[in-house]
Structure prediction request, 242 residues.
Amino acid sequence: MRFNPDYWLGQCLDDFVAFKTLNDLVGDDTAIDSHLSSLVVISADGTSVPAEHAEQIRNHQITGVKNLIRHFGGLTIVGLCTSFEVAVREFYEAWFFRYPSQLHEFVEHKSIKGTVPLAEVLRSDSKESLIKELAVKAASNASQGKYSKILIRASTLSKFEFPNDLQDRISSIQEDRNNTVHEKLPHSGGIKEISEAYDIVSEAIMFLADVAYKSGVPGAYSCLNPVEMVLTDMHFQSVSDA
Prediction:
């Protein structure tokens, strides 16, 4: 079982870039004017609409377009959080598979921690397949709850220090996510707030990547040592080779 923070960081970047593209478009008055100019306003009986009414309709359309930022801002927060949640679960699956001795607190049978039903043991083809199955269960339990607690849990298991300033920041992102998902509250921020959310979620995934890599958990960790690329004479090469 492997942890692939490279992939999940890429998913977060996709969410941010998609929102930024929309933000740039909505902020382009020329593009908005072009869109609105393509609309034809007519009354129900097919006659032309008075100029003042047409202007009211136009202003309403402009407001609707501007409100896209609030609507998709909330969806972007949800997308970032979903990537974080799945990344966390994948981290714990790989972690427990690598360190099965730490399964004890996260698997139980009949409310007794560290126990496994005999039937589950007997139907496993091998010790490895059993550990894999238990790792999935333990990961589901370990990745539940507040984001800050999930990250502190990883810190405790690995004995790697968790950055204290990240605790409050990741908690605020989860709160924004919950407001959108459970309360249907519109996101009040713009590109600045979405950019900050992207940075915070990426930092959290990078923390897990650092923990996993330094602990010998198999995975894809080029995010910890990115290769910068330059374009020279129409050929890509790494900066170190330039």
About this structure: The chain is about 65% helix and 5% strand. The radius of gyration is 25 Å.
